[in-house]
Specification:
Strand content of chain B: 15-25%
Strand order of the largest sheet of chain B: 8-7-9-10-11-14-15
CATH architecture of the largest domain in chain B: 3-Layer(aba) Sandwich
Strand order of the largest sheet of chain A: 1-4
Order of helices and strands of chain A: HHHHEEEHHHHEHHH
Number of helices of chain A: 11
Oligomer: heterodimer
CATH class of the largest domain in chain B: Alpha Beta
Largest sheet of chain B: 7 strands, mixed
CATH topology of the largest domain in chain B: Rossmann fold
Largest sheet of chain A: 2 strands, antiparallel
Number of strands of chain A: 4
Shape of chain A: globular
Chain lengths: ~325, ~450
């Protein structure tokens, strides 16, 4: 008999929900960083980013399968697959920027938004033609062990994802705030025209931003598919939407904000799904998981229209 | 509501009238069937299923099944009065989305198709059935199992697969009697199919004495179930029931393994695919599922069909044999009608007695298949292994009775009404139905009515 103790949560279950939330949140954060990078520089929401993540995952998967079949040892496979996926996504990012966004640099803001959606649809369909409609199972390349903490399970993959998300964010912040390239990025972000007068090649900087953002997309794609064990041409859509939400929640354009927004969204979703039902005596169930997450987003945006950390404009990437 | 019930019944009367006088003169909306004799008589069959999105693989599988059937029908060189008959398949993508499903339905009507095979999902089939009914186009769904589809009183709606009342009942009783579950957690994907099946399962399981310890919901695009599974884990059920499709079921099984949940999954037909096994890999082991009908290998035309299908399209995903039979049932009706006229085909469909690949197909007065069998499978050693088949052509557990019961509950009202103990059941049912409620005439009034008593029932 499972005794129903509605309000007092068991420690192991609560901790497990926190782990779930942190993992999900780190994934959102990793993808959200890509959105925020691009937005920070050009004020453009690159809706195709979710699809870049998907292409990254599927490219890595195809590479890994080929290499495994050729008998390459697994750790090397992981590295090579990640490398190939990153290069492909970087090239893809550069191509998207050149073809879909650069010609519209001076167009009204709605135009690049529409092309972004168009690019997203095109990438999805191309991926469907290349990789088919079936789900692909992802070979276990990351360590598969798991630990038990106070009765809650946490896998090594989950720990790796959290570490990757956190270090990616820190790395990007270093890049933006401490390097020459970063300074050029910040200058371009403030005003491309004036940055150009100061000798910054704005086109090159914007292109580089896309390349870096898309490379991160590949990394995110590999992590996501490793965590869920499957990849599919449609996987980028919902992920992109949620990550975009996370970026807005944290303050789009702000790197730390993407991380905070991602983690917050992940934890809200996990705790929401886990406890709304019990807290409301069964009136609201886990079907309100997303409603809850978006409710929080609305509330945050009402009181802080530029997101949780959006006001530090100077730190915009 | 743009379509008052009166309009529906009028159009149905019109359909009846057409059937009545169909023998002498195929009257007004007679598309390709018209006079000019020499060129082959083309019979257009619409096929609707999701060809993009998470369920694209299952949709393509249906279309392939239908395509194979059309090729076979054409190879049989059917002739009416000296004219060759040629069947054409018009395959459309409904994205498993009720709104898109209606657009596709309208497209079929505009293209004057003679019959429709589809849709794949209950959520698209039910609202689209209104469009076909208004246009008098016969519709045979290979795989929509929500009872509401045939409970709307449309004379155009048929299906070749047992519905969820039958499937849910078998699953619920099986969970108790054979799997010896005392407590279950129920998860559904909030679609007409998933939620409908889950509520039928719940009814049968609680009637058999099982305690439902958790009811969770996800959606048909999700991949992360850690949060709801963690909650389920805390309630320690003996069995987890999932009403939904394999794109969710496979990662769910993997995440259950990761979280150390010992309980097994019990799923309906949506999870009963080779994709589930392939993607969940070792996490698939020991989970259960059911499939309306009998195992592919034991189907009358099964082994041969599998061989032919494989040679052409690869492994069967799920419903391909049913899509094949759905087409063949229409072809059979066309042969008997000796006409391409929708009204005449429609008049012949209820008289169907067709030995198909899946089983011998006959329809009851609602358009449901008679004596639909349900088979149960367990994942063992990397494949689905058949365990038991319940019901089926020899008498079976009187399918007429639960069906008659359904008509009283009428459509979706039945589904949301029976989730009473959950309190919010009525509302969530409506929420997920909203996309279609504008189209299904009986629906909107009923769930509302059912939801009112549902809340006090909980207290």
């Amino acid at each position: 008999m499972g005794d129903c103790q509605p309000i007092i949560p068991a420690v192991d279950i609560f901790l497990q929900q926190i782990f779930n939330g942190l993992t999900l949140g780190s994934i959102y954060a990793l993808v959200a960083l890509g959105y925020t990078m691009v937005y920070g520089i050009m004020g453009l929401i690159n809706f195709a980013h979710g699809e870049v993540v998907m292409i990254g995952a599927l490219t890595a998967l195809a590479t890994a399968k080929a290499l495994l079949a050729a008998g390459v040892p697994p750790p090397l496979v992981l590295l090579l697959a990640l490398l190939v996926a990153t290069l492909v996504c970087m090239a893809l990012g550069a191509a998207i920027e050149r073809v879909a966004y650069r010609p519209l640099r001076n167009a009204p803001r709605l135009a690049p938004l529409i092309t972004a959606i168009g690019v997203s649809i095109v990438l999805q369909q191309v991926a469907m033609l290349v990789w088919g409609r079936n789900y692909h199972s992802v070979p276990q390349l990351l360590p598969a062990g798991s630990y038990e903490i106070l009765g809650a399970q946490i896998t090594e993959v989950q720990l790796i994802i959290m570490a990757v998300a956190a270090s990616t964010m820190l790395g990007l912040m270093q890049l933006v705030n401490r390097t020459r390239l970063g300074r050029a990025m910040r200058a371009t972000s403030e005003s491309p025209a004036i940055a150009a007068l100061m000798g910054v090649d704005a086109n090159r900087i914007i292109m580089l931003t896309f390349v870096i953002g898309s490379g991160l997309g590949a990394l995110a794609g590999v992590m996501v598919s490793a965590n869920y064990g499957i990849a599919h041409y449609h996987m980028g859509f919902l992920l992109g939407l949620k990550a975009f939400t996370a970026a807005v929640l944290g303050g789009i354009g702000n790197l730390a904000g993407a991380m905070v927004g991602g983690l917050l969204l992940g934890i809200i979703e996990a705790l929401g799904a886990g406890y709304i039902g019990d807290l409301t005596g069964g009136v609201l169930g886990s079907n309100y998981q997303d409603v809850f997450a978006f409710f929080v987003l609305i509330v945050v945006l009402i009181f802080r229209p530029s997101g949780l950390m959006g006001e530090k404009v100077a730190e915009r990437a | 509501m743009k379509f008052p019930v009166k309009a529906v019944s009028l159009s149905m009367i019109a359909a009846f009238a057409m059937m009545g006088c169909g023998k002498e003169a195929p009257p007004p909306p007679t598309p390709a069937a018209a006079p000019p004799p020499p060129p082959p008589l083309v019979i257009k069959l619409g096929h609707a299923a999701p060809l993009t999105g998470p369920q694209a693989h299952i949709g393509k599988d249906n279309e392939n099944g239908a395509r194979l059937a059309v090729e076979d029908a054409n190879a049989a060189k059917i002739k009416f009065g000296g004219r060759d008959v040629k069947f054409e398949l018009m395959g459309e993508d409904d994205q498993a989305d009720p709104k898109q499903g209606n657009l596709v339905a309208q497209k079929f009507v505009d293209a004057k198709v003679n019959a429709v095979i589809g849709h794949l999902n209950s959520g698209t089939t039910i609202p689209a059935s209104k469009v076909y009914s208004d246009a008098g186009i016969p519709q045979v769904s290979p795989s929509a199992t929500n009872p509401a589809y045939t409970a709307q009183g449309f004379k155009t709606a048929f299906r070749v697969m047992a519905n969820d009342v039958q499937q849910g009942k078998v699953l619920g009783e099986y969970a108790v009697n054979n799997l010896k579950a005392k407590t279950v957690a129920i998860i559904d994907d909030k679609t007409a199919y998933g939620e409908g099946l889950a509520s039928e399962f719940k009814k049968a399981a609680t009637a058999a004495g099982v305690k439902v310890v958790a009811e969770e919901h996800t959606d048909d695009k999700a991949v992360d179930f850690a949060a709801i599974l963690t909650k389920v884990k805390g309630k320690k059920p003996d069995l987890v029931f999932y009403g939904g499709m394999d794109p969710q079921a496979a990662p769910m099984a993997m995440q259950m393994k990761k979280l150390g949940i010992k309980a097994r999954l019990l799923m309906g037909d949506g999870g009963c695919t080779s994709e589930f096994i392939k993607n969940a890999a070792d996490a698939a082991e020991g989970h259960y599922c059911s499939l309306p009908g009998i195992p592919y290998e034991k189907m009358p035309g099964g082994p041969k069909f599998i061989e032919r299908f494989k040679a052409k399209y690869g492994d069967i995903q799920l419903y391909a044999p049913y899509a094949y039979d759905a087409v063949m049932v229409v072809v059979d009706a066309v042969k008997r009608a000796q006409s391409a006229d929708s009204a005449r085909i429609l008049a012949e469909l209820p008289k169907t007695d067709y030995k198909g690949v899946t089983t011998t197909i006959t329809f009851d007065d609602k358009g449901d298949i008679k004596d639909g069998a349900i088979s149960l499978y367990v994942a063992k050693g990397g494949k689905w292994e058949a365990m038991d088949t319940i019901g089926g052509p020899p008498p079976g557990p009187a399918p007429a009775e639960p069906l008659a019961g359904m008509s009283g509950m009428s459509g979706m009202g039945g589904m949301s009404g029976m989730t009473g103990p959950k309190g919010m059941g009525g509302m969530s049912g409506m929420g997920s139905m909203q996309g279609m409620s504008g189209m299904a005439p009986a629906a909107p009034a009923k769930p509302a009515a059912a939801a009112v008593p549902a809340v006090p029932a909980k207290k």
